[in-house]
Automatic annotation (TrEMBL):
<comment type="pathway">
    <text>Lipid metabolism; butanoate metabolism.</text>
</comment>
<dbReference type="InterPro" id="IPR006180">
    <property type="entry name" value="3-OHacyl-CoA_DH_CS"/>
</dbReference>
<dbReference type="InterPro" id="IPR006176">
    <property type="entry name" value="3-OHacyl-CoA_DH_NAD-bd"/>
</dbReference>
<feature type="binding site">
    <location>
        <position position="120"/>
    </location>
    <ligand>
        <name>NAD(+)</name>
    </ligand>
</feature>
<feature type="domain" description="3-hydroxyacyl-CoA dehydrogenase C-terminal">
    <location>
        <begin position="187"/>
        <end position="283"/>
    </location>
</feature>
<comment type="similarity">
    <text>Belongs to the 3-hydroxyacyl-CoA dehydrogenase family.</text>
</comment>
<dbReference type="Pfam" id="PF00725">
    <property type="entry name" value="3HCDH"/>
</dbReference>
<dbReference type="InterPro" id="IPR008927">
    <property type="entry name" value="6-PGluconate_DH-like_C_sf"/>
</dbReference>
<dbReference type="InterPro" id="IPR013328">
    <property type="entry name" value="6PGD_dom2"/>
</dbReference>
<feature type="binding site">
    <location>
        <position position="93"/>
    </location>
    <ligand>
        <name>NAD(+)</name>
    </ligand>
</feature>
<keyword id="KW-0520">NAD</keyword>
<feature type="binding site">
    <location>
        <begin position="10"/>
        <end position="15"/>
    </location>
    <ligand>
        <name>NAD(+)</name>
    </ligand>
</feature>
<feature type="domain" description="3-hydroxyacyl-CoA dehydrogenase NAD binding">
    <location>
        <begin position="7"/>
        <end position="184"/>
    </location>
</feature>
<dbReference type="GO" id="GO:0016616">
    <property type="term" value="F:oxidoreductase activity, acting on the CH-OH group of donors, NAD or NADP as acceptor"/>
</dbReference>
<dbReference type="GO" id="GO:0070403">
    <property type="term" value="F:NAD+ binding"/>
</dbReference>
<dbReference type="GO" id="GO:0019605">
    <property type="term" value="P:butyrate metabolic process"/>
</dbReference>
<dbReference type="Pfam" id="PF02737">
    <property type="entry name" value="3HCDH_N"/>
</dbReference>
């Protein structure tokens, strides 16, 4: 099957990045979110990114117009589903919300369509179980920021068919990414390794071992990380970090994955990181 029509559900930081990269690789993209202002915000983010590429001479203004011409926005999920060869879901990291989206996608998408989730940690097998096509459900986990980061973790659910895996792997390559195959266990590989490190950094602040600035400095200068773990946590979103820790904790039943109380407190306060202007650091806008 040739994948030409690519729908993205959720126009937040990940969904808009995925839509941009898909359109840049020549696919016809539908970008969906619940409300008009959210899809417009996603689209503005894409325009801003492309404009920066034009200013830096990486693409021409004409190419930018062509890419934007391949993206249409919609608040109607049925409309986004009906014409898709593949749908990539990038809504909030919450199992019941994702399952509800997949139930509807399964009902409205053409029979041949692949249903992929960009989930950071939730079991693909459990998402697939609410559909009548679990063999066509797969994890396609892009990294943030999508236009920059090369990796796509491709996650096989228990029932994912080999040919579906092969199609998604080829698609990731077409989008200029490097796919890596991972089985469906909590946190996959990326977040199973990354998130406990971030959680431990939060514990170091919680226990008064060091300030956020000091923790980040140690990891940048000492371990050669391009970004400190708390800066990275703010960038990912503290709500997403907490969801992932909860998933690891629940999925493995091991106390080593317990989320730090300070992380919970920040999320309850609405300090979600960059996207709300405050997390471990304060941001201008
Ligand atoms: P975000 O909060 O920026 O965007 C989520 C979007 O989904 C919002 O615009 C929201 O309105 C929309 N949404 C919520 N429920 C919806 C529904 N039922 N139908 C349609 N749209 C709906 O979140 P972000 O960071 O883009 O994360 C999205 C997904 O990507 C999550 O599963 C997250 O775990 C995953 N992810 C996040 C990464 C990160 O660094 N933030 C990295 C890789 C994956």
């Amino acid at each position: 099957m040739e994948i030409r029509r690519f729908s993205v559900i959720g126009a937040g930081q990940m969904g808009s990045g995925i839509a941009q990269v898909a359109a840049q690789s020549g696919l016809e993209v539908a970008l969906h979110d619940l409300e008009e202002d959210r899809v417009q915000k996603g689209l503005r983010g894409i325009e801003k990114n492309l404009k920066r590429s034009v200013d830096k001479g990486r693409i021409t203004a004409e190419e930018m117009a062509q890419v934007l011409g391949r993206i249409r926005t919609t608040t109607d999920l049925k409309e986004a589903a009906e014409h898709a060869d593949i749908v990539v879901e990038a809504v909030v990291e919450n199992m019941s919300v994702k399952q509800e989206v997949f139930r509807k996608l399964d009902e409205w998408c053409p029979e041949h369509a692949i249903l992929a989730s960009n989930t950071s940690s939730l079991p693909i097998t459990e998402i697939a179980a609410v559909t009548k096509r679990p063999e066509k459900v797969i994890g396609m986990h892009f990294m943030n920021p999508v236009p920059v980061m090369k990796l796509v973790e491709v996650i096989r659910g228990l029932a994912t068919a080999d040919e579906v895996y092969a199609e998604v792997e080829a698609l990731a390559r077409k989008m200029g990414k490097t796919p890596v195959e991972v089985k469906d266990f909590p946190g996959f590989v990326s977040n199973r390794v990354l998130m406990p490190m971030i959680n431990e950094a939060v514990y170091a602040v919680y226990e008064g071992v060091a300030t956020p600035e000091a923790v980040d400095e140690v990891m940048k200068l000492g371990m050669n990380h391009p970004m400190g773990p708390l800066t990275l946590a703010d960038f990912i979103g503290l709500d997403t970090c907490l969801y992932i820790m909860e998933t690891l904790y629940e999925g493995f039943g091991d106390p080593k994955y317990r989320p730090c109380p300070l992380l919970r407190k920040y999320v309850k306060a609405g300090w979600l990181g960059r996207k709300t202007g405050r997390g471990f650091y304060v941001y201008d806008s």
